[in-house]
Amino acid sequence: MYFTPQLLSHISFETNRKATQSLYSKLAKTAAEIEVLIGMLITMGVCEMPRYRMYWANQTRMDTIANCMSRNRFETLLRFLHFNDNDKVVMDRNHPHYDRFYKIRPLIESIRKTCLEETPGELQKC
């Protein structure tokens, strides 16, 4: 499980922070909803369509996606999806604390940590 409950909770917090900073306080996204959103995005990556709105369109509807949440909710969540606090980012590339991957660093570190904790035997269980 690469998306741990702690990571999902962190993403939920940062996404809600971004929505609040953008004066969109109606978001109130939970970790469970983030998990659904990530699952939808992974499924969309496997079953690609030219435009993401096609997953909800009548002629090209994909129930696996469309039944998870409304298109408008999906668009709103995607609009505010954040993994880190933008107020703390260092933009100067010459600064010693500059991090090219700052915006997704929590995601990278969480997945990296999970991968390092996996033992080869656990991967063979399937």
TrEMBL record:
This is PiggyBac transposable element-derived protein 2. PANTHER family: PIGGYBAC TRANSPOSABLE ELEMENT-DERIVED PROTEIN 4. It comes from Trichinella britovi (Parasitic roundworm). Residues 3-116 form the PiggyBac transposable element-derived protein domain. It holds the Pfam family DDE_Tnp_1_7. The lineage of its organism: Eukaryota, Metazoa, Ecdysozoa, Nematoda, Enoplea. InterPro entries: PGBD (IPR029526).
